[in-house]
Amino acid sequence: MSRQQDEKALLDAVTARLAARRGPTDLRAPGAADVTWRSLLDCHVTRCIETRREAEREQHGHIDLSKYATYQDLSAHPVPEPSDPDTQQEWTLVREDSVRAHHCVCGNGRVPCDRCTGHGELVCEPLRACTGCAGAGSCARCGGSGQRGHHSAAAPARDERETCVKCGAPEAACPACRGAGRVRCTDCDGSGKVACPGCEGEGSVGHKACGGAGRTTTWTEGTIEHRSVKSEVPMPTTQPPVLVRLIASGAGQWRTADCGYGDRLPADLSDTHCAAVERGIVKRPGELARRARLRHLPIARVAVSGEPGLVFYAFPESAGCRVLPLPSARRVALLTAAAIGLAAAVKAVFMLLG
Ligand SMILES: [Zn+2]
Ligand SMILES: [Zn+2]
Ligand SMILES: [Zn+2]
Ligand SMILES: [Zn+2]
Ligand SMILES: [Zn+2]
User: Fold this and answer.
1) Per-residue model confidence (pLDDT) at position 20
2) Positions of the chain with pLDDT under 70
3) Where are the domains of the chain?
4) Are 136 and 227 in contact (CB under 8 A)?
5) How many Å lie between the centroid of ligand 5 and the Cα of residue 115?
6) How remote is the CA of residue 209 from the centroid of ligand 2, in Å?
7) What radius of gyration do the chain's Cα atoms show?
8) How far is the CA of 120 from the centre of ligand 5 (A)?
9) pLDDT digits (tens, 9 = 90+) for 196-216
10) Which residues fall within 8 angstroms of residue 89, CB to CB, at 6 or more apart?
11) Alpha carbon of 138 to ligand 4 centroid (Å)
12) Phi-psi region of 305 (alpha: psi -120 to 50; beta: other; left: phi over 0)
């Protein structure tokens, strides 16, 4: 199908439509009809784009890089061509002779613990205030001072009291501390020190800078990536009215084409659409494969002389051509003016009656 054939078929369809209203008309006669195109186009482009990049890498401790292929010149490193534009693939490589092992200043991956300054233990009180008597009520006779008579607290029931270790008074002292006012610390069991929670008593912790490995490995990593990138070609032409677009999108016989490298664009595509598609498929940096998927529908807008109130939109459908007569912009303006005039007249009548 060519553009001329489209125009002839669509004009013939409008002619047939008009025949019912006003008899035979030759729309191809000079000045009989004004044909402009309102064709629709969808064009989605898929490309496979290759990128190659290098980066310096560092890893704590030892790392096995033998599973990666090596290269000398990343730009020349061969990888398989993408089988189609949807291909996505990535290769990780190591530059030859770039792998280095570095020893860390820590030596073995451990450094002294900050919290206990490398001792592994923290100082703890060996004795704590007695919770049974809070210290002050430790002995009813000496009050924990060791000198009887200093304290005037009433003596509690006998069976709750023990002999005071300070003043020797029987049945006078708190049973928990036996008059001492303080008890052995349960955290350190009276030893005066506890294991450091920062290093669990080791005195040293893993060195953050080397991840506790005592050494690091550095190398140059190369990455080759094949990525599928999709884009849409913007439609550059004036669109038909919404009603036409809605009907045409369902009923129209859309034409489709897949264009790869070297393929000609469809002959029935308008010059404007051809130019837009050509702009949309320009080769991009790193592009290895490309597909342009086109879907288009020729739509003619036909203004017939002697029919100022109507505009005809015609497009191919499965059985021939569909013709949609729409009120012209002029007719819409006249109708609007008439409606406003009617409203004014009604208002005038009401005013007269009032
Ligand atoms: Zn270290
Ligand atoms: Zn510690
Ligand atoms: Zn006492
Ligand atoms: Zn006590
Ligand atoms: Zn303690």
Assistant:
1) 78
2) 135, 150-159, 349-350, 352-354
3) 3-45+229-329
4) no
5) 17
6) 18
7) 48
8) 15
9) 999 999 999 999 888 888 888
10) 79, 82, 225, 226
11) 5
12) beta
